[in-house]
Task: structure prediction
Amino acid sequence: MIAVTGVAVVGSAPRVGHAWAVAFPENLLAGDERVVKHLHPHWLTVFVPTVLFIVVVGVASFLVAVIPDGDAQDVLRIVVLALAVVVLILLVIIPVLRWRTTHYVITTHRVMVRTGILSRTGKDIGLTRITDVSYTQSLWDRIIGAGTLTIESAGEGPPQVFRNIPNSDETQQLINHLVEEDEQSRARDSAQYVGEAYRDREDDPPPARR
Result:
């Protein structure tokens, strides 16, 4: 296992870059489970809030500066600043926190999704249950390196659709690789178990004759 910028590359799994990901809490993983890839939604989801932050701060600063002197100057400045804070909270801080607290984590056992700022929701899709992984990209998605990932799994109802996934094509290939690797590992374990059981049976002494 090779550590690459906080991401473990297991076996011959392809390396896939990601934006601003951080280490995932180890206490959410099983003992032999490792994080292969940890993603947030594509960085463009916070591009508009970043631009709005610059615009709101600039406009608020300008208005505060041009308010004429007088008895109402302080009140008007407070009103402008208060409105700017409300706009920043609604259109900048909340979207950025929503982006920051949305995690797509691919491990050696499952695909984990965690979302929510104050209240949290989560979903796990085991590799053994995944039946198909596909992605779609518009022309714009191809330009910015994003896309929509769709995961179908046995007994999970409708397919799970995840939008604004960075490098969705490479992520799809990675999940397919891990599913195949998991199937091969289980097949080897099963064959080893059967072989050991057969050898134990051969090693048992024959029953004594009366």
